[in-house]
Specification:
The protein is of the alpha+beta class and 516 residues long. 59% of the residues lie in helices and 16% in strands. Strand 14 and strand 15 form a beta hairpin. The protein starts with a helix and ends with a helix.
């Protein structure tokens, strides 16, 4: 007991340290963005308050915003740097003459830094120079940061640094999601039934991850307002599907059992919100349902964090903590319309890569372990389950479930032992498909089996076994009795589970007798 308490304390300390590391990384990244967005030259002075400039304006239909400001020219600094512009088209006028145009109104200019070199013949030294900025948007527009004037070389270097941290990292994320998608497609074909579930969830998360991250890349045109708007709608709701499938993956690998109807419920909400966003003709509703999508994604991230911390899943603490921090920051920025950087692309990227790596490593480790055990002659040759020799090598903890097939002796007497052996083989196949790969399915002898699992909690045993019982009744025409107990010492756990199983047999016997 003391050792168990010590182990829990050690795990708790590890979780806190890992959480602290994720917080340090988040704060470091936030500080880096703050530093690289600092103006390096003369800040343009606008005719409106600064909070009116650094603000995101939501549009109910395609619209534009116009800002006028002034700056002085010293004979050297003639290049304007915009750290971030959220618009589909940007026009810049200096002293009432248009000097630059970005975009054509059908694509997103965000998140690249934009650099505008103003011809020197338009500039007047020792006088005020007027600059007018016109932002065109379909769903909204805004300027982040304080546009400033520097020389061309400084402007290019500053813009490259911003784009490396903001735009290029998203391209890396899309590439990483694509590689993960490809690797798991290859692994899926040769995977076991349990592995395929996890692989499928990662595959789907990768697909929606790519769709969601494209919104964070610089794209100047799609050719029409309609195509841009459709893409924008889908990109707003894609994160819901990413987090939903990653939630399923966490459930699959945590020991928590998620009923099929709850899975359907978790998926209905993203599909419903996506449908409402897609059919919305007024962008006011796109913003509203997009906000609901962000809120739902945030709730799921919090739920995932809860599962990870309650189950003390150390391998998931860092990516989940980082995703929670970046998700909270992004939700706050979007809900308030602040001009701050959005951190969620980093959170999604770290989360997906970490979960994919952890899942692959886990299955490889389990497969290697089972391969070693198979070579040590611990397999039952008839059923393919482990035999009693494996018991001494079982990891402590979890639960032991004792299973006894109903009426096997009568079946052997009636149909013969060959038929009985085939029934045992088929029963084993059903059980092995139903349990996780890291669980141990053991034939103790005759018609007696057991499952030793670190992934099944005691409160879920009856539900899981009843589901397995129904499968056996439907596919084999036979049922079984079972009992379970916490697993630390095999003999003690066996005794407790056997007592519960005996009680189940007694109840079945009394029920059958009443039926007769």
């Amino acid at each position: 007991m003391w050792r168990m308490g010590e182990r829990k304390l050690v795990n708790l300390v590890r979780m806190l340290l890992i959480s602290l590391i994720s917080l340090v990384l988040f704060l470091s990244l936030s500080y880096t963005f703050k530093v690289i967005n600092l103006p390096e030259g003369e800040v343009i002075r606008w005719m409106v308050p600064s909070n009116e400039i650094t603000k995101y304006y939501q549009f109910e239909k395609p619209d534009s915003k116009e800002f006028v400001g002034y700056f002085s020219y010293d004979g050297v600094r003639n290049t304007v740097v915009f750290q971030k512009v959220i618009a589909t088209k940007l026009e810049i006028f200096v002293n009432r003459e248009r000097v630059a145009v970005f975009g054509d109104g059908t694509g997103n200019l965000w998140p690249k830094a934009l650099v505008v070199s103003v011809p020197e013949y338009l500039l007047r030294e020792s006088e005020k120079n007027e600059i007018k900025v016109v932002l065109h948007g379909i769903v909204g527009a805004g300027i982040s940061g304080s546009p400033y004037l520097v020389d061309m070389n400084t402007a290019i270097q500053g813009a490259q640094l911003i784009n490396m941290f903001r735009n290029d990292i998203v391209l890396v994320g899309i590439g990483a999601a694509g590689v993960i998608l490809y690797l798991f497609l290859l692994a899926y074909t040769g995977a076991s039934a349990n592995e395929k579930k996890s692989y499928f969830y990662i595959l789907m998360a990768s697909v929606f991850m790519i769709l969601g991250l494209v919104q964070f890349t610089y794209r100047e045109t799609y050719g029409s307002v309609e195509s841009y708007l459709i893409f924008e709608k889908l990109a707003r709701t894609a994160p819901m599907f990413v987090v939903t499938f990653l939630l399923f993956l966490i459930f699959e690998n945590s020991g928590f059992y998620l009923k099929p109807r709850f899975k359907i419920a978790f998926l209905i909400i993203p599909f419903l919100l996506t449908g409402l966003v897609v059919i919305s003709t007024n962008t006011k509703y796109v913003h509203f349902f997009g906000l609901l999508s962000d809120l739902y994604s945030m709730i799921l991230v919090i739920y995932i964090s809860f599962i990870v911390y309650v189950k003390r899943l150390l391998e998931y603490v860092f990516p989940v903590s980082f995703l929670l921090l970046t998700g909270t920051q992004t939700f706050y920025v979007l809900a308030t319309g602040l001009p701050n950087e959005l951190m969620i692309p980093y959170g999604r990227l770290v989360f997906l890569i970490s979960l994919a790596t952890t899942t692959l490593t886990k299955f490889k480790r389990i497969a290697a372990r089972h391969e070693v055990l198979a070579k040590e002659n611990v397999l039952d040759h008839l059923t393919g389950a482990f035999n009693r020799k494996v018991i001494e090598q079982l990891p402590k903890g979890g639960v032991l479930i004792l299973i006894d097939i109903d009426g096997l002796k009568k079946i052997n007497d009636t149909y013969g032992h060959i038929y009985g052996d085939k029934l045992l083989q088929r029963f084993s196949e059903i059980v092995k498909k139903d349990i996780r790969q890291e669980d141990y399915f053991i034939r103790l002898g005759g018609d007696e089996f057991c499952i030793v699992s670190n992934s099944i909690s005691e409160k879920d045993v009856e539900h899981i076994m009843n589901r397995l019982y129904n499968r056996c009744r439907n596919e084999l025409g036979v049922g079984f009795s079972f009992g379970f107990a916490p697993f630390d010492n095999f003999d003690k756990a066996y005794e407790q589970a056997d007592e519960k199983m005996y009680q189940m047999k007694e109840e079945k016997y009394r029920s059958n007798k009443k039926g007769v």
